[in-house]
Design brief:
about 600 residues; five-stranded mixed β-sheet; Rossmann fold; Heat Shock Protein 90; Ribosomal Protein S5, domain 2; 22 helices; nine-stranded mixed β-sheet; alpha+beta; 22 strands; 4 domains; single chain; elongated
Length: about 600
Amino acid sequence: MSKHEFQTEVNQLLHLMIHSLYSNKEIFLRELVSNASDALDKLEFLKLTDEKYKDLDLPSKIVISYDKEKKTLQVSDTGIGMNDEEMVENLGTIAKSGTKHFIESLTGDAKKDSHLIGQFGVGFYSSFMVAKKVEVLSRKPLEEKAWRWVSEGDGEYEIEEAKKDGYGTQITLYLRDDAEEFASEWRIKSIVEKYSNHIPFPIYLVNEKGEEEQINKASALWRISKSELKEEDYKEFYKQISHDSEDPLLWIHTRAEGTLEYYTLFYIPKKAPIDLFRVDYQPGVKLYVKRVFITDEERELLPTYLRFVRGIIDAEDLPLNVSREILQENIILSKIKKSSVKKILSELKKLLEKDREAYEGFFKEMGKALKEGIYSDFENRDKLLDLMLFKSSKRDGYVTLKEYKEAMKEGQEKIYYIMGEDENLLRHSPLLEKFKAEDIEVLLFDDEVDAIVMPTVTEYEGTPLQNISSVEEEGEVEKELNEKFAGIVSAMKAELGESVKDIRLTKRLKDSPAVIVFDKNDPDIAMQQILRQMGQEVPSPKPILEINPDHEIFEKLLKKDDEQTTRDIAHVVLDEAKMAAGVEVDDIADFNRRLNRLIARAI
């Protein structure tokens, strides 16, 4: 017998399971059954693809038994099994820093948090919510030796050689006094029906007479005709494969026949998956071939921007021994992917048209990911643009590009937008003043991803898109005005020196004294922020300061021959324009000193 200490993260997780996530204990059985199903999936695949495993004779099944007097519960499977090294790897450590992400994602609501367990692949440890001791007896097919893993969840576990008739894994839970309810027929049946009805292998319960009774449907739900399924069937299956406690927003069930034969069942969740914006996100779609599970780790089954989708692809025409390399280049899978994307986008458009409130809820959760497709999926760009929702300078809610076009003023030739990361700053940007005065709507692009994605969109249905921060002046400022303010502009240029690229008069402002814009060859503020977040070193381009000749500050400055006031105003006006654009002021103390001097003179 060898003793081992749990990985530090596992200890943290066990503590959480036992002390914090105790309110929804029943999910432990969901997780153990799910793990048993995975073990059966892996062996089924080997039986069909590897000659060594073809003669294995045990039927694929899961068996649950209990003993009221001994307060034990047992879950057994005839799956792939584990040896001693795999027990250390699978039961003593957690890969992919799953625990760290799990702990970061906790909300404090024990019931909600318990549903995160399956999403992070740490479900086995939920056994310790109900058990004071857990034993795992396992044997791999084609191997004589069996191994026993034992732990009381106290920081240590033991592994020893053992004996086991037949291959597979048997998990025995020694229940805590307050978990005796799980050693009963009705409780086990209710949990299996609730969470595991459509596990594709039969689940048997050994009753008090010692007889095995199948307690789940064991059907590949995605292959059942839609007419034979109820809403509840779809919802239960979604919760089983996603470990989500909420019902899905919608589902898309397709059977394709003809040149290609395949089945797909896709779900759109109501809430974004926890790892939606993590580099190491877990793909949500599983691939089957002729009902045989192939993989749930292939990211190429759907485009990355649809990574929030959960579900199944089951192809009839792929070889069972398909490798990762073949998957990425397979023409059949490519056609299924192409068709699936069009179907998903089509269903989202229907939702947008039929239930705007539900679609807006979806877009708030998953819209940022969906926007990535505009940049990466040129073939479906038009469909994706129709699904986009944007905030607007004239509306409280969201507007589509189609709705914007329908509301355009007569003679308006462009769709205008302003870009940044702070909605409030955008709504009060001096750049909007002229558009508000002319009653022209401006879209607010305030998602981080907009700075990368939207500049690639030059037009929508023939109408150009225009960033108002780079709008060219409509006609030059009158020669007389330039001559009138030439002295002030020259004095401000001398004072601000290298801190600006240029200073010029503008006709685009109505109320504000000044605004900063950037040369068309320089990245704007939003793009600068994105590039820095991506770890790139971005030298801050110098802004162009545009001043409003109609503003009373400059009108009064013309009449006031005061060099110090002109210098102070140059700095204060530049810093105010920076703040209005969300740019950090270089020297706050200097700004305050100059502002106080100007206030004192004005009193």
